[in-house]
Amino acid sequence: MSTRETAAAACLEAIDGAFFRALAEPARVAILRTLILQGRCDVGTVASHAPHDRSVTTRHLRVLEAAGLVRSTREGRHTFYELDGAGALAQLEGLVAMFKALAPACCPPQPEARRKLTLRNVR
Question: In the chain, what are the domains?
Answer without folding.
Answer: 3-122 (1.10.10.10)
